[in-house]
Amino acid sequence: MPDPDAPALSVVVPAYNEQEVLPEFHRRLAAALAGIGMTWEVVYVNDGSRDTTLEVMLGIQAADPRAAIVNLSRNFGKEIALTAGLDHARGAEAIVVIDADLQDPPELIPTLIATWREGFDVVYARRNTREGETWMKKATAHAFYRVMQRLGGKVQLPPDTGDFRLMSRRAIDALLTLREQHRFMKGLFAWIGFPSKAVRYDRAPRAAGETKWNYWKLWNFSLEGITSFTVAPLKAATYVGLITAIGAVLYLAQLVIRTIFFGNPVAGYPSLLAVVLFLGGVQMMMLGIIGEYLGRIFNETKRRPLYFAERVLPSRMG
Ligand code: UDP
Ligand code: MG
């Protein structure tokens, strides 16, 4: 059913404990979208914040009918919060996904729209610099994108690209048919295809509040990315096994020849132990890799809904 009052553009904003930045975010967004010549709404998703984020959102909505609120029943994580926002976005022509912390400048949205009007379904914002982030985070992020590119095969992740992007309605409809539990959004965005183009920008440091990321989370995020994107680690396991087996056969041959020609002095306790521990380690690691995939299969087979919304307050347009 087409909605006659639907705005042309939806801006989807996942927010977890963002009470400090939201008013400023909304002000900057409204200013940035003033001249785009499209009707628009902004969908704020409160991802189970522990602070007053929901109250701040309600305040924004009371003052601005273009604001919609999706209040999730608990914290589900950014990827699912984003999906909830996309599910409830009414934008008939295009949808923008942006972080609440002002690291993605709302002022770039008119540029994204201009590029979309040139005929691209997906216009993603590509970072030039990562100001205010440590070199460790930059280096690990860089390494992650390079690994993903090697593993990606036909589906290529654009490097240095976050979730900040504009997508056409048909691209979003395609994306929303993917309902898997393990949602590596960058991978899903890439998987659906459609003509895409990058727009470059400078990523600012967080305006206020704290990043929810740490290295343990980043590591898990990378694992999530790799395992939901490619089965290359399973293939790698096969080859590591093959190479170890060949190595073992060669070593065995050497032992046999040595015993035949030079007798058997029964040395080799250290080498025995080294080999046993090495093989044990390799096997455990392979089991771990299989386990990563198995756990994900387990989660997917439960076919649970992705989230529950405690309440949905649509924008009051038209
Ligand atoms: N976010 C969310 N749920 C979470 C964690 C984060 O909705 O569990 C939101 C957060 O409010 C922000 C965006 O996702 O709008 C990006 O989060 P953050 O700035 O912590 O990540 P970073 O920019 O460091 O990648
Ligand atoms: Mg951020």
Short description:
This protein is an alpha/beta fold and 318 residues long. It has helices spanning 22-32, 53-63, 78-88, 109-117, 135-152, 169-176, 185-191, 215-229, 232-262, 269-301; strands at 9-15, 40-46, 67-72, 94-97, 122-130, 161-168, 196-203, 309-313. The longest helix has 33 residues, at 269-301.
Number of helices: 10
Strand content: 15-25%
Q: Give me the strand/helix succession.
A: EHEHEHEHEHEHHEHHHE
**Total count of strands:** 8
The CATH architecture classification of the largest domain is Alpha-Beta Complex
By CATH, the superfamily of the largest domain comes out as Spore Coat Polysaccharide Biosynthesis Protein SpsA, Chain A
Subcellular location: Membrane
Pfam family, one: Glycos_transf_2
Domain Glycosyltransferase 2-like: 10-175
Transmembrane segments: 236-257, 269-294
Give a written overview of the molecule.
It is a multi-pass membrane protein. Keywords: Glycosyltransferase, Membrane, Transferase, Transmembrane, Transmembrane helix. This is Glycosyltransferase family 2 protein. Pfam families: Glycos_transf_2. It is found in: Membrane. Helix 5 packs parallel to helix 8 and helix 9 packs antiparallel against helix 10. Strand 2, helix 2 and strand 3 form a beta-alpha-beta unit. This protein has ten helices and eight strands. It is elongated and about 95 Å long. The protein has two domains: 216 residues, Alpha-Beta Complex (Spore Coat Polysaccharide Biosynthesis Protein SpsA, Chain A), CATH 3.90.550; 71 residues, no CATH class. The longest helix is centred in the last third of the chain and has 33 residues. An eight-stranded mixed beta sheet has the order 7-5-6-4-1-2-3-8, sandwiched between helices. The protein has 318 residues and is α/β, with parallel strands linked by helices. Magnesium ion binds next to loops.
